[in-house]
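ENTRY TYPE: paired fold submission
RECORD: A
CONTENT: sequence, then structure tokens
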Amino acid sequence: MLGPLDWAIIGAYLLFCVGLGFALERKASKSVDAYFLGDRNMPWWALGASGMASNVDISGTMIITALVYALGTKGFFIELRGGLVLVMAFFMVFMGKWTRRAQVMTLAEWMRLRFGDGPEGRLARLISASANLIVSVWVISYFAVGGGKFFGMLTGIDDRTATLIMMALTLAYTAASGFYGAVWTDVFQGGMILVAVLYVVFKALAAPHLPETFAVSVPMAAGQFQQVSVAYSDWSALVPSFRLDLPGQYAAYNLFGVTVFFYLLKTCIEGFGGAGGYMSQRYFAARSDREAGLLSLFWISLLSFRWPFVAAFAVLGIHFTLSGGVLSDPELVLPTVIAAYAPAGMKGLLVACFMAAAMSTFNSVINASAAYWVKDIYQTFLNPKASERTLVLHSRLASAAVVGLGMLFSLPFVNINDVWGWITMAFGSGLFLPLLLRWYWWRYNGYGFALGTAFGAAAAVASRFAGIALPEYMNFLVPGGAALLGCLLGTWLKPATDPAVLENFYRVTRPFGFWGPVRDKLPGSETAAIRAENRSDLAAAAFSVPWQICLFLLGLMVVMKRWDNAGLLAVLLAALSAGLYWTWFRRLDAGEPPKP
């Protein structure tokens, strides 16, 4: 499907990325702080653009496009489970600055600030590092499955071989250049992604209006697919029905109202609890609270272009079938549309853009996960006196190990949605509750975090490998319930954290929640300032969540040509933007708390 000009464009892109990575090798090798955080001296707009590029992965884009193609706006609401990245609304107004204030390198190292450097803090740190490494391996597996399906179809190369080549190239420049390479290649790759967005959206808007009824394909069992008829008005409805009647694998979403409620609940828990990996890494690297807020705003604004992008592919996929084309697997809408509608040269540019989407996510996960091994396991427990040179060497070896294990674990999977659903709803739910409680409950200790994380992860893994088929909302409840039990047992069976550690954490981070015994020990003026900040943050969060949803939905409605819905969303977005400005943006220059 690719001609000589297409291959030349792809080759030039790959050579540029690898060359830039090796050009930054010397800068990244100065120290482990440079390798993982860019010396905490990178501009906020670069961190925000890098975050956007890291979120727009190829596997996730294929899933979202498949859901919007088959289900329309309902596919958008299903992606409340993770594809909307709604956690960014919370990072923008308070979680980003709370994360940055710790002045650490990883989420696991953060445990030392919250639980101290004694036995409970070290145990929490070890458990956190181990859990994040496991998540990284599974995420790499998920990317490997989606990347293989996409690039294998377009290039004619075997799926696994295509993924292996792409991962090897990404590993080469990421291992060489660390965080510097991850961010600056992401900025370049993000620009390429926006070029692809503009081209595909223009093609979709220029296409004829969709008919009142049309057929789409949905996945059944054992690799089979079925054509179903849908109405355009229902497909593009702004508010879907609470009950659906879908066949096959999508029947899991038939209790739509219940499913979306649990997705939203899970996302809010994640948002209030924070996240690890490459998302937190960009806040650890931010230079100030103000820049943490600005990079979030830029990140969300750029990420909003993803939704008209996937809607455009979905619309063109439907036109492809209306014109007599055969499209059985919804997860192959992207390569099918590119092959059918892109001319020579543009086809190569689009493939390069999707390589950019894939590689920008690979490099972020690889670099962030290596930090957990180097900083939180190797240096903390195995070799505390390791030199900077040794730590950088271990960073590169850990990067290779994470990629190798991710490729190995990807072999049993062929369905991207299956892997993504388990990562976001089952394994992720086992980790979110322990992360949530650490911010808001003074009595919660490191033993509670460690036991809760272990219980939640074990429940998710056990249900997966036992072959127990559970609806996705049950995949939320079972690991989440096990995690909560572990949190409570560990907390009440062991003493509270040292009061001096708790007071230092509270003064530095300034969280809201159940901190009465700690807060009462502080001077009245300091307590008043913290309470004022907390009230403002909670008010801003009430605006930021619906603001992000309206922003993303607006692009979707424009490409679907539902101008009535687009007009309503534009009015809501303007009102929410005004509220967000008043409660959050104008306060970005407020003073920062003391450093830990």
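RECORD: B
CONTENT: sequence, then structure tokens
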Amino acid sequence: MTKTSAKQRLAGSAAPIPTGLTTGAAPLALRRSAADLAGDSASQSSLAMLDRAMGELRAMKIAPFLQRSVECVRTEDAAGAGEWALKALEVDESNPIAWQLLGISREKLGDFANAIKCYETALPQLEDQGEIANDIGRLAFRLDHKDLAAELFAHFFQAHPEIADGANNLACVLRDQNRYVEAIDVLKAALGHHPECALLWNTLGSVVCEQGDPVTAITFFEEALRLDPVHAKARYNRGSALHGLARFEKALEDCEAALKLATDPSDLAMMRLSRSTILLCLGRVAEGWDDYEARLDPHFVGVTQFLTERPRWSPADNLAGKSMLLIAEQGLGDEVLFANTVPDVIEALGPDGKLAIALETRLISLFQRSFPNARIGAHVTYNVNGQTIRTMPFLGDQAGIDLWTPIASTLRRFRTSHAAFPNRPRFLVPDEGRINHWREVLKSAPAGRKVGILWKSMKLSGSRHGHFSPFGEWETVLKTPSVTFVNLQYGDCADEIAQAKAEMGVDIWTPPGIDLKNDLDDLASLSCALDLIVGFSNATTNIAAACGANVWMIGAPGSWVQMGADRHLWYPQVRLFTREAGAEWGEIMGVVAGELAKV
């Protein structure tokens, strides 16, 4: 195999990364606990293993090339390590050590897909497959191949049960698959062998926290800190748990201490983003939005990249007469929430300015009606080598765009304090004709006030479970007399509707002729035709509230959206019901039921 053919072999396994990319957003509300994967393909133990393997190759022609590659790895010259590994492969195309070194090089250069290919080529020929299985598992995890990562980590754990890193990594991927009981079992066994390992205590705390028990999690984080007082992630995680308990000042103290201890750029970006949510909860709005720019850091794990070469807007730029592109970001509900600033952007552009908005396809008709002079189109998102890339094909070559920005960044200019949030009845405009249509349709529902309900999100991974009550907790609300509950819940909800009928004696009426997940423009009209909507914050409640519907939102403590205010700043007509820190869901649901009975 020649050097060129080796490169061709790698290139055949992965699509090239497009040029002209600028980094974008990851969800603000979906912070992962900082109990990340342990181990390093270029660690001292890994390099020692390579040295031992090369001890048998001293007389071979490729030995000097391999040794130069290892030395480059030791000196963090990833590109050089790859070049020397390729030289070795020119001589012996099947040498597993050369492929492993090339994999280390590609991993360090951020080419994770090709790194996996290199490791997989080396794997069948290596005597100790456990170590490299751990390396492949970490890359599979980063590329979001969680099932493969779990299989590889399990292989490594079985081969080396004495290594704490193996248990930690397996527990992390089990946690991310919501297999909490299995993760805890793995960690308990590992702690039996390594009771002084702060890494394991920190990961145990992260699992328990995501199960919805921040109080117990804090105990485990504090044990990690007792064992290792400068453990940055344990400090950060304790702050996150305190945040969930609405102890914001203490949470901020821990987060800032973690920022001083951390050195990894991805950890620093994650921690700064977490600090943004704490600052927002404290009402320090301008500071919070400044820190929220950490989501654009190219080191932030999971960052979206926007395919545009136009100049990036900054809050100091004069927009008058400009052509501006806003790119919606994060989940569907967030795309709606952050559109709160669109009227302000239009005003700043003035009569000679032009606005384009790239957003989720299902929102196009609603936004086009709401902002008739703007150019509205769909963004398209791809995954390339584990990187999320968002494009705006409806704009063509974008030559007419003067400035662009992810839509949430406009908050740094237009929403820097509580007072900057306008008392607008709505900023999205539903179809009045369809509102009248739905008012007629609702007359065919059982008698009583027509109250729409939503009880879950389709994105319930990790800690988001703590933001939604179990459906059984709705019983006190659903038994409110003189109310017909109208199903607005998108996705598969047949089991809950059947449960309401069988266990609570309540019929939840489903409106005919509408796809609650995809017909979002019509959903906006239906929402405005109802007397009231009660539910947790998700895409539907945000659409309804943005259109001026009467909405009661139920939330968990520590929600950044409230930003320390006693009202919903984004949607002035919305009434908030927030569960107290440490309280059971039944308490706040009882309050909602009591208030509903009074209406």
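NOTES ON RECORD B: The chain has four domains: 33-195, 196-302, 304-420, 432-598. Confidence is low (pLDDT under 50) at residues 12-21, 23-32.
STATUS: closed
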